[in-house]
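Request: Have a read of the protein record below and say how the chain folds.
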Amino acid sequence: MTDTTVIKVTSETAPIGAMGQKHLALSKKLAMRLWENEQPGEAKPETQRPYEAIGYVISGRAELQIEGQTVVLEPGNSWVVPEGASHTYKILEPFTAVEVTTPPAVMHDRDRA
């Protein structure tokens, strides 16, 4: 039998994660989260994550450094961070973006700062 469950989450009532992200949707295989109005500051510590992430910039600007490459992300841009890739980012202007992770970043403490 196929799972036909529909789950609706509004951003106003979405759970907030430890890093300030809103958890918009979660399934067995992927998760969607919102980074809303992230403020400029120092670059985040370099990290490697046990999940793949793709995202879309709604507003603002950020600099993504991944495996020796630097990419400036602006409204309308998308990005991909492969599982295990060494990366960091720096918010340049107040930044809002939607990100999807697979497997879900929130599961099994994968989503730690």
Notes: The longest strand covers residues 87-102. Residues 22-109 form a domain with the Jelly Rolls fold (CATH 2.60.120.10).
